[in-house]
Predict the structure.
Amino acid sequence: MKSQQSMSSSTLPLTILTLAFLSFSICVNAQSCSHEFAELAQEKNISGCKRLRTLDADFGWNWNYHNDTNSSTIHIEILFGVKLNAPQGWIAWGVNPGKRAEMIGTKALIAIKQSDGTLKVDTYNITKETRSGCRLLPSHNIGLRVSNMSVNNMGSILYIYARLILPSEEYNITRLNHVWQVGYELVEDQPLNHPTSLDNVDSTETIDLTTSDGRSTKQNRSFLRSVHGVLNIIGWGTLLPIGVIIARYFRVFPVKWDPTWFYLHIGCQLTGFLIGTVGWAIGLSLGHASTYYTFHTHRAFGIIIFTFSTIQMLAFRLKPKETDDYRKYWNMYHHFLGYGLLAIIFLNIFKGISILKGGKGWRWTYIGILAFLGAIVFTLEIFTWVRFFVLKPKQSKPKKDNPK
């Protein structure tokens, strides 16, 4: 009963911290367009406007239905703008009539900027062969009508403007799959493959054009990646090291908190393991759902971390008794495996931050966590050695016999 109360009291603040950190880190709010883009949209009488979630891109639109005798069509007017951080390159925006927003099957408008400043925009069909590296050529038969297509350059920002007529039997205005992209490699007028960062891969969305803010649906990969990162930082990267610190410095020497240290140690390790396992499972799900890319090193390290953490958790039930002859060898294995596991965890977290393109915020937040934990370890280590050198002479000094 006492152990359960100790574990509950130690894990409750950690649970609250987890929820607070998670809410702070993955809160997603709709952003309005940039000031320059909003002014240009106003000039063209475009009412809908939103900041897209990747590549610092902006998107504006108008729409209306047209009912003919034989069929109905959707008329949309679009304005797409994105910064091109290079003397040459290309930007693209398009719609996909398929079941989900993805590159393959997109009917795209691609604007090309040559190094001499020449601008060109045309329509393209994006196919599986395109992704395989086959030459991408303009196509005027993309299954929808495009008019008034133009491209403008304002500073480092390129804008595509066009009017499109979409057949209503293929496209749903409340669930329109649209894709945007930026690339920097050209061969004459041919756009080549774009970068493979997550920002580029995640540049897809299912948008509701009937809403003023362009509400998006069923695009939770970016959200889940943030959840994956936060849970792993808290579980593997923070709580497990705290559990190791407690076992290292509060078990016997320099401070003896028996049996409190054991309950705190189990509480931190078990809570960290459970939180980290949820994050690991989300990561596996994201990797399984990703059709065109896999981060092999990050995934392999994640599997190693989960496997050996599970072995460490089983130690609470399978460890030998203190009277067993091989208990000291088990202790050595348990300690060295734990320290080696921490090294892999720290490495993989920074690897994940680099993949996630979390920016300086994520990186410096975790560096701050490690610095705080490191300062605690450094202080306790100094205290350990000071106390050792103070107590050692006293213990080695022979006791004087009492006079009779």
About this structure: The CA atoms of residues 225 and 283 lie 7 Å apart. Residues 359-396 form the longest helix (38 residues). Confidence is low (pLDDT under 50) at residues 1-12, 22-30. The first strand starts at residue 48 and ends at 51.
